[in-house]
Amino acid sequence: MTSSVYVAGVGMIPFVKPGANAPYPVMGAEATRLALADAGVGYEMIQQAYAGYVYGDSTCGQRALYQVGMTGIPIINVNNNCSTGSTALFMARQAIESGALDCVLALGFEQMKPGALGAVFTDRPSAFDEFDAAADKLVDAQGVPLALRYFGGAGLSHMKKYGTPLTSFAKVRAKASRHAKNNPLALFRKEVSADDVMNDQVIWPGVMTRLMACPPTCGGAAAVLVSEKFASQHGLRKDVRIAAQAMTTDTPSTFKAGDMMQVVGFDMTRAAANKVYEAAGIGPDDLDVVELHDCFAHNELITYEALGLCPDGGAECFIDDGNNTYGGKTVTNPSGGLLSKGHPLGATGLAQCYELTHQLRGSAEARQVDGARRALQHNLGLGGACVVTLYERA
After folding, report:
1. In sequence order, what are the residues at sequence separation of 6 or more whose Cβ sits closer than 8 angstroms to the Cβ of residue 221?
2. What percent of the chain has pLDDT over 90?
3. 0.90 exceeded by pTM
4. CA distance 104 to 25
């Protein structure tokens, strides 16, 4: 037995810089309470919870949710790198769609430290050993932190293949700031121009300036998913439905292609998107709004092509023609994306869900995409996993 899955409620707290945040249990509990209130359900109605975070000890999910209630339900902790929040959402959706459960919580939170990401455990093999080796082979960027080398290297690959200018990445970042100025929950709300981005601190000559990278961020977000039967029984809203969802992991092409775009998940993204399009019987031209994983401006640009929003090699024109913003073909990251909204790893996927749910409800206020009926969410975790989710206004 399968059931339609609806987003009954969403919650998100303002994203902030490390040091300006409340402790993770407070952030997680607050996001949960907001989602419960939005759904109109009490915590006692939640049958199971998936709690996502990357930087934390075991059972941090219990630590956060016990602040909301101690009802004895299963609480499953999820860690899938930057796709953690969407992985929690994926598992919650599966539990309902299978008919096993009717009301499930997906929660994501992160308490991050300032500075570049790095390994926590240094006394054992890293999950990124093969990715590091690929980056060492393909990219000559001594002294550049690994995450920057991965995604900057992917952008550099695109530049070499298609002649993409550095200014294209600057335009992506400027667009993010224009969108984020209308998002009261975003970390960075100051509008910047493409020239501002180009003239910012250079962190990889010819490849990246500081503003092209997302900042370390703290925050939390949550969603309550319900079955159609449960929603009808309890008078809950059924205006936003998860129409299709897919998760993919790496294939041999990640390392065999000899291309940094593949190393950072281009093929994972394309495979997940194609599965979603096929399941829903639509194509990328049918999308109204997209929240995608712009951890770096470079990844947003290559993801346009991986999702099929434009042809391979067509991202520069897609940007220059304004097709990634209001008035164009597909509004991307109306929230400001990771570049401006911030990227608390465990919360990111659920913050995307929050934004797209409001877009389809028509309650996104100054960020509203007119007439939005279909919304796509793309959340990528290097190392790796990619989750693509299609929402429809029911």
Report:
1. 10, 11, 12, 13, 31, 85, 107, 108, 109, 347, 350, 351, 353, 354
2. 92
3. yes
4. 19
